[in-house]
Amino acid sequence: MRRSRPFVTTFALDTATPNPALAIIRDDGVVAEQWLGQIPGGGRRVLEAAHDLFRSVDIVPADLHEIVVGVGPGGFTGLRIGIATALGLGQALGIPVRGASSLEALAIGAAAHRVAQSEVVVAVINARRREVFAAAYRVLDDAALMPVSAPRAVDPVELSRSLAAVGPCLLAGDGADLVPLAANIRRAPQGDADRITAPALVARVRAGGERPVTPDYLRLPDAEEHRRRRLGEEVAR
Q1: What's the CA gap between 98 and 156, in Å, rounded?
Q2: Segments in the chain below pLDDT 70
Q3: pLDDT tens figures, 179-195
């Protein structure tokens, strides 16, 4: 028989990068957390990893009250896997599924490493194709964010130039090394400050940052880009 629980137990996951993050959170406390590491096919191991995570802390899916999933921006395949996993579990269990921005979660994690509260946090995800997904925020108390620049897919050099007028900035994320550093820009330390954490997704939802559970691609997929290029070439002949 399922025992009565005074807590809200949340399963959170993010698959926007090649380093998927999972966590089980009870109210605001982290019960268990895991990263799958940057290995080929990491996104496809999410459900298997979730099973191992549940078992490690003696929790079964029926104990969950909600699911929070990162909606990107990020890799197309990874986002589809993560969101499909979350929606499938939510439907099977009859519990709500809530979305959170992967860039905003990254900014929340990096904010603890600012040298001053006025330092702008720039969340950067490697978007491939010589671009990064990036957004800049002033991070307030309780995981609240004030946007400085909206999420976009951008050339890393252009991003660095655009930050010149922003003031002191802290770059974080797996795309940060692609961005040329300037006098006003410094790099976040590697570790939790530099990767998306599943608890940060939950913190954003708790702070009022819930998003629709739909992938935020920010740009067209490769297949659509190729299709449009072929059509253009055919028209030009």
Answers
A1: 31
A2: 1-6, 39-43, 223
A3: 999 999 999 998 888 99
How crowded is residue 60: how many other Cβ atoms within 10 Å of its Cβ? Answer: 10
Asked whether the beta carbons of 109 and 172 are under 8 A apart, the reply is: yes
Q: Locate all alpha helices (DSSP H) within the chain, ordered by sequence.
A: 46-56, 76-93, 102-111, 156-162, 198-206, 222-236
User: Can the peptide bond before residue 73 be classed as cis, meaning omega within 30 degrees of 0?
Assistant: yes
Cβ 179 vs Cβ 171: under 8 Å? yes
> What single-letter DSSP state applies at residue 211?
B
Q: Note the pLDDT tens digit of each residue in 22-52.
A: 999 998 799 999 988 876 666 678 888 999 9
The owner of tokens 């957004």 is 135
Tokens of 213: 């559970």
CB-neighbour burial class of residue 232 (10 A; exposed 0-12, middle 13-18, buried 19+): exposed
